Amino acid sequence: MSDTVAHGAHPPGFAHQFEDMTQQREAGNLGMWVFLVTEILFFGGMFTSYIIFRTLHFASFEAGSHLLKVQFGATNTVVLIVSSLTMALAIRAAQTGKRKGQIIFWLILTMFLGALFLGLKLRYEWYADYVEGIVPGISWNSGAHAPGVELFMCFYFFMTGLHAIHMVIGLGILTVLVIMAARDKFSSRYYAPLEISGLYWHFVDIVWIFLFPLLYLIGGRYQ
Amino acid sequence: MSMAIADLHEAPADSSVNYLNATYGIRSWLLTKDHKRIGLLYLATTTLMFFVGGGAAVLMRLHLIEPQGALFEPETYNKLFSTHGIIMVFFFMVPSIPATLGNFLIPLMIGARDVAFPKLNLLSWYVFVTGCIFALYATLSGGVDTGWTFYPPYSSSFSHTHVVAVALGVFIAGFSSILTGLNFIVTIHKMRAPGMRWFRLPLFIWAMYATSLIFVLGTPVIAITLFLLGLERILHVGIFDPAVGGDPLLFQHLFWFYSHPAVYIMILPGMGVVSELITAFSRKKIFGYSFVAFSSLSIAVISFVVWGHHMFVTGQSVYAGLVFSALSFLVAIPSAVKVFNWTATLYKGSISYEAPMLYALGFVGLFTIGGLTGLFLAALATDVHLNGTYFIVAHFHYVMVGGAVMAYLGGMHFWWPKITGRLYPDYWARFAAFMIFVGFNLTFFPQFVLGYLGMPRRYAVYPAEFQVLNVMSSAGASILGVGYLIPLIYLTWSMRYGPPAGPNPWGAKGLEWTTSSPPPTENFKEIPIVTEDAYNYPTPEVPRV
Ligand SMILES: [Cu+2]
Predict the structure, then answer these.
(1) Mind listing the pLDDT tens digit for each residue in A123-177?
(2) How is chain B split into domains, by residue range?
(3) For chain A: N or C, fewer Cβ within 10 A?
């Protein structure tokens, strides 16, 4: 069978359990999609709980939402959307057989934007919240706020925290991709790792697109 | 079929080099990417966990010989049943068939060289072992007393035991389930041999596919739920605490959204195994192939919308209860489809009673009892009486132990010659199957009666009038315990001293039987080309079905 050919020739990045590159590429893509489905359910438990409590304690959730620093949330939304664009451009550069310098440039720009997101969040949101005493269980001056507000802040930290963990993992993946690109692993024939990691990066973005209005924009803040 | 071709290449001289002796040393096992070796790593780990969980069960049954409790303080008893439940559900039942037989067989059955992502497969074993270590650490350093369900507010605010360590262990082990499920789904979609169309797949593969769907869709929800519980316990932020607006019922909803489908993670693979065994030992094509295949998928789908039947008496609205009750009855349909199709397959088959078949027939009988008693619990009115009693304990042990564990052992005995290349002593295997069947029924049938009479579960003491039935149950448990030890002994013995099995000792159909035993590392010298349906046994009695 063609099997001996496939196993003898070894195209770059080819793994032995597959019969040819098409099969390998399709398997990788399907694997990432299935993983993203898992991720949706993972965040889904959180979103469901959030929605239930938001229905039960809407006024408190509104009050809690107004404690958040919406200007940083909005800035970060833009930062993330741009990072999705740069990620897509990195894949495009590989696809169209551009020099490795271009791929690396777009990847590093994506990493920079990701790090910027985390930096803003950490310094101007979470740290400020800590100083203000609106971090439940850790730094909470309970006098000022109703119990439902504490619940809202819980969900705010759980959901954005879980999202931030995904961002950190994404940065790790991007680092690996930069190293792979520097070692000339990618070409217009083989760029599956870029494509698959891109799916992940866009997914993490989309989660934020849902989180931002759910957490920051409750209750007609700017009517 | 390609069998003829495969036989030419596989059967003779080459078969001396196989996946077991290709490389040696502990490193070659701990760093293996071969799905067959990873299956064996899982087998060793889950067997260890089975005997830990089983040990706890034996101690519980010994304690319950006397109405006042023979051995332990009530606190210790609480830890024993919690340990038993947690270890058996999350660290034995869930990974048992999928991660051992599934890992070993899926690539062989679909004609692939390995799963789609071998490194991920190895990683999932390491993740699982990490979860096991947390669970064992918590058990040895004082245990946990919340029951396997971890209900708050007890688990979040009151229990003084190692809740966080155990929850973390289950959380971690969950990721190994997710990775395994992902790997299987992609493997079944993308790695099938030429000609292996979906409706030529063995029914075990359909069952594993349905199980993998639940792994991927259900497990992340229990992960996030336990994550929330851990945070609640450490930080006391109040998600499950009504005093600050939280809701303990939310935990139950999220918990059962996974844990009801998890029941089918445990039983669906067993159903897949039984479909293989019954066709092989009655030498017949399965009756109604597509019905059996689709019943697996529909069980997986329905399993996600019935979780409320665990909460009929917890303050869930009556209307929600009605809907959940009706939906729960629906599960009976695909389950019954399977049982009827197996029975129809047996009809006029040339049945032989080797050990795997004894387990399969035991499965059909015990699963039917377990399934039918489930209907009592799906009905609102009877559930109010039976909820929280030994009736429930008996019901799910008939499904989980009488069903899933019987199928697991049947499958292990069926594919053992393929896995090790050796035959085990058939006499002892039949003897053990018989002993397990008797011991199981003696243990759990009295518990139906106890539950009906009103004995609550999870208590260390009971009224004196229940003693006779409890002693019967404990006697059965000791028979069952010995029954489980016997296969451990003769299967281990056979690895060294058993006679060589040859590629196909049962004369069974399926690609895994076309390669040598044990298979070579690359499974097939040449990827087979499939030209016929599954279970294409010759039908001597009537030419048309
Ligand atoms: Cu259930």
Answers:
(1) 999 999 898 888 887 887 766 567 788 889 989 999 999 999 999 999 999 999 9
(2) 2-12+35-514
(3) C
The token pair at B313 is 């008496």
Quote the pLDDT of residue A99. 87
Residue B2's pLDDT is 39
Is A45 within 8 Å of B189 when comparing Cβ atoms?
no
3-state DSSP assignment of residue B367 = helix
Q: Which residues contact A201 (CB under 8 A, 6 or more apart)?
A: A83, A84, A87, A110, A170, A173, A174
Domain that holds residue A188: 34-216
H/E stretch holding A135: strand A134-135
On whether any CB of chain B is under 8 Å from the CB of A71, the answer is no
| B169 Cα–ligand 1 center, Å | 23
Phi, psi at residue A118, to the nearest 5°? -65, -40
Domains in chain A: how many in total? Answer: 1
- Low-confidence residues of chain B: pLDDT under 50: 1-14, 545
Q: How confident is the model at residue A221 (pLDDT cuts 50, 70, 90)?
A: low
Residue A24, domain member (yes or no): no
Q: What is the pLDDT of residue B81?
A: 96
Structural domain contains residue A2: no
Which CATH number fits the domain B2-12+35-514, given the four candidates 1.10.3720.10, 3.20.20.70, 1.20.210.10, 1.10.10.60?
1.20.210.10
Cα atoms in the 13 Å half-sphere on the side-chain side of A100: 12
Q: What confidence score (pLDDT) does residue B539 get? A: 65
How many angstroms separate the CA atoms of A26 and A31, rounded?
A: 8
Q: What are phi and psi of B500, to 5 degrees?
A: -60, 140
CATH number at residue A56: 1.20.120.80
- What is the reported pTM? 0.92
How far apart are alpha carbons A192 and A196 in whole angstroms? 6
3-class DSSP state for residue B416?
helix
- In chain B, positions 264-303, which contact chain A (CB-CB < 8 Å)? none
CB contact under 8 A, B116 and A35: no
Cβ atoms of B341 and B291 closer than 8 Å: yes
User: How confident is the model at residue A19, as a pLDDT?
Assistant: 85
pLDDT tens readout for residues B392-410: 999 999 999 999 999 999 9
Q: Output phi, psi for A186, to 5 deg.
A: -100, 150
pLDDT for the residue numbered A9 = 56
